[in-house]
Amino acid sequence: MYETHYHRASSIQDAVKLKQAAGEGKYLAGGMTLIPTMKQRLAAPTDLIDLRHVSEMRGIKVTGKTVRIAAATTHFEVASSAELAAVCPAICGLASHIGDPHVRHMGTIGGSLANNDPAADYPSAMLALDATIVTDRREIAAGDFFTGLFETALEDGELVTAITFEAPAKAAYQKFANPASRYAMAGVFVARRDNGDVRVAVTGAGSSGVFRHKGMETALSSNWSPDALANVPVDASDLLSDIHADATYRANLVKVMAKRAVAAA
User: What is the total count of domains within the chain?
Assistant: First the structure.
């Protein structure tokens, strides 16, 4: 690793101030991506601004059906929240299958979203739940937040502070996980609101990252059943091909995971 300067932020304002004063500084939450890339000398920030001790960036608040998850809340805390499970058990289930216990106790929801790994789980939940990403500067709709592989709408120095969404009437997430990394080779989050609005978001399979599948949304809007997806095509031309699975195989996985998610919901 290259030399770096460590700073422990005490508040959101303090973190932003430290970042502005740093040369090539990086925010540090769980460090599940940043620390390994630093070890491999693929990243060399001059300064690390630790967010783990910022109390306003930790915790989950549920008011009626309105959910607010602070950005430095760990995957384990999301998975084990009884308050959250009472209104949206799907996101608890999603968090419970991220990585391994070490990753779940260290990794954070805000860090995962800001990194926007194409095989990460949370981005599909954010799209399907029509969530809002709150930063130190503004609020960004999930549909506008994810812009490509490892790319988001965040501006330089902008800090994700929380995620908010309205709990749906029904929701579930199913993924086909890589057995080594537990990343999604294809993951599908489905959500249905009280007004009948349906969203289906896919992660781990898209060549441009997370995306919504409008064909499945249309089919499920009129018939909320796994059978409704039987004749819905999944275009393989926009899907990933790699050493783990080619695009055609992933297209089949997307449909299978979507059916399982609807059945689970």
Answer: 3
Please indicate, yes or no, whether residues 142 and 220 belong to a single structural domain of this protein. Answer: no
Is residue 73 in a domain? Answer: yes
Amino acid in the structure at residue 173: Y
Predicted TM-score (pTM) of this structure:
0.95
Confidence band for 23, pLDDT divided at 50, 70 and 90: confident
* pLDDT tens digits for range 90-137: 999 999 999 999 999 999 999 999 999 999 999 999 999 999 999 999
| Pair (89, 153) in one structural domain | yes
The amino acid that residue 166 corresponds to is E
